[in-house]
Amino acid sequence: MTQANIPSDGTLADLLAHQRAAFVAAGAPPIEQRLANLNTLRKAILALRSQFEETINADFGNRSRFETAIMEIMPVTQGIDYLRKHLRRWMRPQSRHVAMQFRPARAKVLMQPLGVVGIVSPWNYPLALCLMPLATALAAGNRVMIKPSEYTPRTSALMSRMLAGIFPEDEVAIVTGGPDVGAAFSALPFDHLFFTGSTGVGKAIMRAASENLVPVTLELGGKSPVIVADDYSIPRVAKALVYGKLSNAGQTCVAPDYVFVPEDKVEAFATAYEAEARKAYPQGPADKGYASLISQRHHDRLVGLIEDARAKGARIVQIGSKPYEGLSTTLAPTIVVGATPDMKIMQEEIFGPVLPIVACRSVDDAITRINAGERPLALYVFSDRQDVVDKVLSSTTSGSAVVNDTVIQFAQDDMPFGGVGASGMGAYHGEEGFKTFSHAKGVLFQSRLSMVGMMRAPFGSLADRVLG
Ligand code: NAD
Questions:
Q1: What's CA 67's distance to the chain center, in Å?
Q2: Dihedral angle over CA of 286, 292, 296, 300, nearest 10
Q3: Distance CA 71, CA 366 (A)
Q4: Burial zone of 93 (CB within 10 Å; 0-12 exposed, 13-18 middle, 19+ buried)
Q5: What's the domain of life for this entry (predicted)?
Q6: Positions in the chain whose pLDDT score sits under 50
């Protein structure tokens, strides 16, 4: 286990105790300190922008610096701006209704930091999925311990150096290591545990947290479907899907996993998608702008899914074959035409640049099939007909949904981002994030003029007066 920012005796439990003692001693930080923290974090990220772009590229083997700027740095810095702009309003105590018999007491809700928050993050967007939860937890006044993914060690080291340079270890600390460290980390009695990663590991996290009754937010994965309605332009949907599926080579939690296309448009869609993919990545997989997969194991798993689909009768279309600088972890954009439920590719989250096309008879048919599976993290519907959109939105349950585009919901500052059912629980971004990392404490301020005494022994007539 490698570690950074851990006190001299080096145990995770000591680090937590250290942060908790500092939290108790200092109390909830005032708004000025929270705004200053956010500002410092934002500046530090921007100062290291090109280093982050380089390290993430090195961790992946190949990932465009523009992709890192657009998909990671921009949403985080904008998200921080949004937190800074609205924090004062969110922190303001809210007055609540007091029933007649308790007046003139006053009721308020005070938003209080939870204390020490643990964050476990994945490799696919190693900066954004670590620093956006961190910024939100800091905005809510917490102290934070982070366990990033072992697959992006250079990025973790850079984040570690950056955070150690701007925050004391009793406020923010990074612990690095693999699943063993993750397991020890998630067994700590945090005040909240925020996890982003796979559904399988999410279950282990929740089991471990339950031992200490630690509340969890689980940002998980799953198969996010796309429904293309009959009325929608095929070239337009192809363009949106190429962006959603091939950015970061499909290694995006809200990437469209598979697409329902009307039976008679499957061939036209496959042709349009192929054309759009060639336009976006003129060199195919050899394009500098086309990301490689995070490891050989991830690459080989996807090849296995493709071969299983081929063996079960699907037609496989691959766009180019020569990988970027001979990287064996690059996988060509792939289309699986004629995907059926018996294929493994339709049973597990793909998380790569492979798009199964599923022929469907109607939008109702697609809805029925989606509702037969786990609740997805995201759902995409393409239609210009309001009645079709309304029907899809009201008859399916997904963490988020986008009408006529893909993936961009992650970059919205003022929308809850999270899953439902097997794709997760809880949400963050904007005010929902602030609430996730805060305790809403109800406080009743009694008045000296209270009539409550009339409800206590020896009993007066208040009950008869209130109930009539
Ligand atoms: P993962 O679940 O394998 O790992 C995530 C983190 O958990 C890593 O830091 C890892 O070291 C740690 N971990 C592994 N085993 C652990 C254990 N037993 N106990 C505690 N911690 C453990 O996920 P990944 O491969 O890094 O990321 C890909 C998955 O994450 C996909 O399923 C994707 O859909 C999902 N994801 C979800 C979101 C979202 O916002 N909902 C975002 C990105 C990725």
A1: 17
A2: -80
A3: 30
A4: exposed
A5: Bacteria
A6: 1-9
The residues spanned by each domain of the chain are 9-221+423-443, 225-411
Q: Domain 9-221+423-443 adopts which CATH fold? A: Aldehyde Dehydrogenase; Chain A, domain 1 (3.40.605)
465, 451 contact by CB (below 8 A): no
Q: 126: cis peptide before it, omega within 30°? A: no
pTM for the whole thing?
0.95
Which DSSP letter does residue 3 get? B
Ligand 1: residues with CB < 6 A are 120-124, 129, 147-150, 178-179, 182-183, 186, 196-198, 201, 204-205, 219-221, 253, 349, 351, 377, 419, 424
Bridge partners for 402 per DSSP: 380
pLDDT at site 4? 43
Give nearest CA residue, ligand 1 atom 13: 179
pLDDT, residue 9, reads: 46
Q: Name the CATH architecture for the domain at 225-411.
A: 3-Layer(aba) Sandwich (3.40)
- Annotated catalytic sites, by residue? 219, 253
Pocket residue to mutate for ligand 1, from 2, 145, 149, most atoms within 8 A of Cβ: 149
